[in-house]
C-alpha cells in the first residue's frame, strides 16, 4: 500500500501530520532489528576538515543530524510548533527585561553515556570551548552574543550577553551548544575523527572506511534523561553514493527509510505509486538554495554584475523545469513562511528582463559578455543540482550578457575551497539552525559569517541585526528584518533562488515518519518505531 502524507499549511514549525504511517509515533517496538535509515550525506575526515563530528566544528545538516542524536543541548526545538523547550535543562529563561541575562537549571541526575555526572561546569566548558576554538566552519558565530558564562553550584548556568538577543534560546538548541565531557574533548584543539560522546538519547558507533563514515549505529543511551521519548533501541544510518542506490536499497528492503536527498524523479514516482509498500511523507521545509559571491573577486566585484544576474535569472522557469511542485521561487534569503519575510528581490527587479540587465551593466561600464564560472557541489544537495546549474547557465548565456560555464566538485573539496575564497560564484544551500528570520540573515551577513564572505555592510551588522534581536515579539522585528532584506536585494552579496519542501520515504511498517524531520530538517530518529505493516 502507498500513502502520501501532506502537512498543510506550510507554517513555520507546524509539523502536525494529517496522517502517520500505519500506527503512530508512540507505537514503536522496544526490541527487534535496528531501523535502517538511508542518506546520501557523506561524512569525511580530511586534512581540511579532520574533526567532522566535533560540536565546536560541525556546521552542516548532515553532521548536525548525527550530533542531535548523541550530544544533548540545554534547549531543544519542540516536536510541533513553538519556541524551544528545556532538554538537558529543567528550566531556562531570561531573568531581566532587556533579554541580556539568561539562566538555566540542569535536570537533576543528568549523566553522560559513560556514567559521569553532567554539571554546570561541563556546560560552561563546552560553550567556552566552542567560542575560543573559533573553528573555520564559522559555527562559533552562533554564540557571538555571549559575553561570559557563569555557574552557581552544580546545576545553575547563567549566560551574560553582550547585547539583547531574543533568539538566544534557539541558539542553545543547536549542536554547537552541545554539552561535552572535558575528559573526551580537549580544551585547545578539535577532536579529530568520528569518535563522539555525549548525554543524548543515543550513543554512536561509527563504521569507517578510507576516512569516511559509511555507517552509523545509534543505540539507546540507558543513562539519558531529557524531554524526548525514545521509541526504538537501535537505528543504523547508511550512506549511499547517490539517490538511485539509496532508492534501490529501500525497494529491496535493505533499508527501512530514506531521506536526504531523494531525486525529484523518485519523489514524483513515489507520489503516484499505489502498491509499493512504501509511504511518502511530504512536509513543509525551510531549505533554501542560493548563489553566493566572493564580492572581492574581479569578475563580480562590480555590484552591477551581481544585479544583472539577479535581473536575468528566471526562478519560476528554473523551479518548474528541475523541481516542479517540490520547490517554490524565493525572492529573499528568508523563506516565505517565516515571520519577517519580504519579497525584496521581486520588489526591486520584478520579472526577468534582459533589457534592464543590459542597462545596469552599461551604466557601470561593464564590458559584455561577462565571463563567469558557476561552481556547485556534486554530492551534497541532491542529484538535481547539476541540472539546476545547467538551467542557470543557459538562462544567463541566452541573455547575451554573460559567458557562463559550470563546474561540479565533491563537497569535501568544494566547501574548503569556497571558504578560502577560491570561487567567484558558487551554489549553496541552507537548512536553518533554528526557525527564525535572524538565522537566514546573520549567518551570511554578520561578522565571522559561515561563507567567509568579504561583504560587509555596517548598517546591517551594527544597527539592523542588533535591533531585530532586541524584539522578543518577532513581528515587532519585521521593520529591521525587511530593511536587511532590501539592502541584500540592492547589493546582491547572495542571490536567493528557491525554497523546498522535504520528504521521507519509508516502508509501511515504520511508524513515526511524520515526525522524522522537523521544519529545520532536523532528523529525529527517536520518533521512529516498527509497527505492523498496513
TrEMBL record:
It is found in: Cell envelope. The keyword Chloroplast does not apply. InterPro entries: Peptide/Ni-bd, SBP_5, SBP_5_dom. Its main location: other. Residues 83-449 form the Solute-binding protein family domain. Residues 1-20 form the signal peptide. Keywords: Signal, Transport. Belongs to the bacterial solute-binding protein 5 family. This is Peptide/nickel transport system substrate-binding protein. It comes from Streptomyces africanus.
Amino acid at each position: 500500500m502507498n500513502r502520501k502524507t501532506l502537512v498543510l499549511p506550510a507554517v513555520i514549525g507546524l509539523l502536525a501530520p494529517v496522517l502517520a504511517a500505519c500506527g503512530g509515533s508512540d507505537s514503536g517496538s522496544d526490541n527487534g532489528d535496528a531501523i535502517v535509515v538511508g542518506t546520501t550525506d557523506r561524512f569525511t575526515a580530511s586534512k581540511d576538515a579532520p574533526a567532522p563530528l566535533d560540536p565546536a566544528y560541525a556546521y552542516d545538516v548532515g553532521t548536525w543530524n548525527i550530533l542531535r542524536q548523541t550530544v544533548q543541548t540545554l534547549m531543544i526545538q519542540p516536536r510541533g510548533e513553538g519556541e524551544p523547550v528545556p532538554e538537558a535543562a529543567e528550566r531556562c529563561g531570561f531573568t531581566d527585561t532587556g533579554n541580556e541575562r539568561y539562566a538555566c537549571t540542569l535536570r537533576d541526575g543528568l549523566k553522560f553515556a559513560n556514567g559521569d555526572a553532567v554539571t554546570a561546569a561541563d556546560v560552561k566548558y563546552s560553550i567556552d570551548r566552542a567560542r575560543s576554538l573559533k573553528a573555520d566552519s564559522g559555527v562559533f558565530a552562533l554564540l557571538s552574543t555571549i559575553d561570559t558564562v557563569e555557574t552557581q553550584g552544580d546545576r545553575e548556568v547563567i549566560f551574560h550577553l553582550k547585547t539583547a538577543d531574543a533568539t538566544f534560546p534557539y541558539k542553545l538548541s543547536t549542536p554547537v551548544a552541545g554539552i561535552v565531557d572535558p575528559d573526551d574533548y580537549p580544551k585547545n584543539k578539535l577532536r579529530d575523527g568520528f569518535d563522539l560522546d555525549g548525554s543524548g538519547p543515543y550513543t554512536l558507533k561509527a563504521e569507517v572506511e578510507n576516512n569516511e563514515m559509511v555507517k552509523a549505529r545509534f543505540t539507546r543511551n540507558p543513562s539519558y534523561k531529557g524531554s524526548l521519548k525514545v521509541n526504538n533501541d537501535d537505528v543504523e544510518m547508511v550512506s549511499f553514493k547517490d539517490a538511485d542506490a539509496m532508492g534501490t536499497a529501500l525497494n529491496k528492503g535493505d533499508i527501512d527509510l530514506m531521506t536526504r536527498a531523494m531525486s525529484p524523479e523518485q519523489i514524483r514516482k513515489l507520489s503516484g505509486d499505489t502498491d509499493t509498500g512504501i509511504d511518502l511523507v511530504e512536509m513543509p521545509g525551510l531549505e533554501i538554495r542560493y548563489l553566493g559571491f566572493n564580492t572581492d573577486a574581479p569578475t563580480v566585484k562590480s555590484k552591477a554584475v551581481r544585479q544583472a544576474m539577479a535581473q536575468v535569472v528566471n526562478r519560476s522557469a528554473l523551479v518548474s523545469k528541475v523541481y516542479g511542485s517540490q520547490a517554490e521561487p524565493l525572492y529573499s534569503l528568508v523563506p516565505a513562511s517565516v515571520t519577517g519575510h519580504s519579497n525584496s528581490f521581486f520588489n526591486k527587479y520584478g520579472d526577468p528582463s534582459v533589457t534592464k540587465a543590459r542597462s545596469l551593466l552599461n551604466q557601470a561600464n561593464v564590458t559584455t559578455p561577462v565571463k563567469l564560472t558557476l561552481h556547485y557541489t556534486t554530492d551534497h544537495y541532491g542529484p538535481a543540482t547539476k541540472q539546476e546549474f545547467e538551467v542557470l547557465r543557459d538562462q544567463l548565456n541566452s541573455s547575451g550578457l554573460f559567458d557562463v560555464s559550470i563546474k561540479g566538485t565533491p563537497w569535501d573539496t568544494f566547501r574548503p575551497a569556497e571558504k578560502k575564497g577560491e570561487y567567484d560564484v558558487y551554489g549553496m544551500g541552507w537548512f536553518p539552525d533554528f526557525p527564525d528570520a535572524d538565522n537566514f540573515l546573520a549567518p551570511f551577513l554578520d561578522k565571522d559569517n559561515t561563507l567567509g564572505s568579504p561583504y560587509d555592510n555596517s548598517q546591517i551588522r551594527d544597527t539592523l541585526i542588533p535591533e531585530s534581536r532586541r524584539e522578543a515579539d518577532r513581528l515587532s522585528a519585521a521593520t529591521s528584518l525587511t530593511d536587511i532584506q532590501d539592502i541584500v536585494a540592492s547589493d546582491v552579496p547572495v542571490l536567493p533562488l528557491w525554497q523546498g519542501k522535504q520528504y521521507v520515504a519509508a516502508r509501511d511498517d515504520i511508524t513515526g515518519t511524520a515526525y522524522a524531520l522537523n521544519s529545520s530538517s532536523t532528523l529525529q530518529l527517536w520518533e521512529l518505531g516498527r509497527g505492523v505493516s498496513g
